[in-house]
Specification:
Length: about 260
């Protein structure tokens, strides 16, 4: 089956300011990219004589190499960018229409899979009968000629092939696997997963949100684009998201077709 991969955009903006900083990893560290130089943006700390230390996200290339390689000196306050990204995820991405899009795409794949099954199972069963016949003939040859290395190797490869064919046939007839594709049941499972992810945002569980939601969903790093206007300075951020993690484990263990299920953007 041709691999189809649809993407959805994540975007927003955040007011920033220049800062002199030192590195400290947090929620979005390693997940951010500078639009000016395509280098990483890391979390760093700014200290002052009268204020508590505050953390910012700053272009690493500019901080370490200066304007010569990247002129982006804009810093984003960590707590504000973290909150803005999570809010955009909740408002733009993890929404009811996303669940509907994913379910619709899975149903499309299931329809294509059923069409494929109509011809695949008879072919697999024919291949299995042929492999079993070859195993019988090799066993007869060993009984006559003895356990020659070439015959033993031929049996080993046929045994492996027989196991693969039997597993494929079993999966074609696995009703439990087929039930997982039912739209209502799938919608319930996906919505439950989305609710769990949103709960991580509202409960402030940033480490879990990073590893369970942001990192799996990002098809590439979030791009920070500095903007300077008469109204002020801010970062615009955007990203492409892939929704493999939203369905992984919900439809048939080991079914690689569903790994590419992501909704149209």
């Amino acid at each position: 089956m041709t691999r189809n991969q649809y993407k959805r955009k994540l975007d927003g903006k955040l007011v920033g300011q220049p800062a002199y900083v030192t590195r400290k990893p947090y929620l979005l560290s390693t997940l951010l990219e500078c639009a000016v130089c395509s280098g990483p943006v890391w979390a760093t700390k700014r200290t002052g004589t009268r204020a508590q230390p505050r953390y910012y996200y700053v272009c690493t290339t500019h901080r370490t190499r200066g304007d010569r390689l990247c002129g982006n000196a804009l810093a984003a306050p960590m707590e504000r960018l973290d909150a803005a990204v999570l809010a955009a995820m909740a408002r733009q991405v993890l929404t009811p229409d996303l669940v509907d899009d994913v379910v619709h795409r899975v149903v499309e794949l299931r329809t294509a899979a059923r069409t494929h099954q109509a011809t695949a199972r008879p072919r697999l069963e024919s291949d299995l009968r042929r492999t079993q016949g070859e195993l019988r003939r090799y066993a007869e040859a060993i009984a006559i000629s003895g356990p020659l290395p070439a015959l033993l190797e031929a049996i080993r490869t046929r045994e492996q092939r027989r196991g693969e064919l039997e597993e494929q046939i079993r999966r074609h007839g696995d009703s439990a696997w087929a039930d997982a594709w039912q739209p209502d049941e799938l919608r319930r499972k996906i919505q439950a997963r989305v609710d769990d992810w949103l709960g991580l945002f509202t409960r402030g569980q940033e480490e879990q949100a990073r590893e369970m939601v942001l990192r799996p969903l990002l098809a590439r790093r979030i791009v920070l684009t500095p903007r300077v206007t008469p109204a002020g300075r801010f970062y615009k951020f955007d990203a492409l998201l892939s929704f493999d993690a939203l369905v992984t484990g919900l439809i048939g263990a080991g079914d690689r077709r569903v790994v590419t299920v992501v909704p149209p953007g």
